[in-house]
């Protein structure tokens, strides 16, 4: 049986609040003790509560005094380095959440463009449904994708050579890679795609359903199929709607 999620909110019932305080106080002191023993550190705790007229300390007044004095000897900048109040904690959480959202949007965009690329490769896409801006971005994405595939193929061919394959077979495999890498690419900088606005693709690229974690679950068999085609038929793999200069054919 799964444990019910605890609702973190103020307990209005006085007796229940006091009972919860006493139980969690004991657990808190126990955790500090375990931390100090397992990690060999100096630790202390001071708790003020409406249920006691004097503060409760752990492990003892003398030990708490030693830890506090040692802390006060540290420069102020070091003391405040990892301090955070409630507002600061919320701001950190908001910033982290925004960064995660931006990353997921970029991941979804990249996967949606991969799906669109494979649709065109299989002759199922319609370039006229995309705007000029989206076609240009898709061409950049394809350029970078092909560069990565050619680099991957080059590594595989070098690995085959190390295992005793003939150099003539390796040259036949790597020659198209040299043409693609030295040709007129519209994406000389691999990081250029990172400057695109990810929000513009959410409604313009199809084939990107919502998943539980916000990431589109791409069928990786497509990539394996393309790598296989490039390895076995290097001179026949091309995008039917694009020529060697990555422009739409008339």
UniProtKB/TrEMBL annotation:
SUPFAM superfamilies to which the protein is assigned, alphabetical: SRF-like (SSF55455)
GO BP annotations, alphabetical order: positive regulation of transcription by RNA polymerase II
Biased composition (Polar residues): 183-216
Record's keyword terms, sorted: DNA-binding, Nucleus, Transcription, Transcription regulation
Domain MADS-box stretches: 1-49
SMART domains: MADS (SM00432)
Main location, first listed in the record: nucleus
Disordered: region residues: 180-216
One cellular-component annotation, GO: nucleus
Subcellular location per the Swiss-Prot or TrEMBL entry: Nucleus
Molecular function via GO: DNA-binding transcription factor activity, RNA polymerase II-specific; protein dimerization activity; RNA polymerase II cis-regulatory region sequence-specific DNA binding
Name this protein carries in UniProt: Agamous-like MADS-box protein AGL80 isoform X2
Natural source organism: Raphanus sativus (Radish)
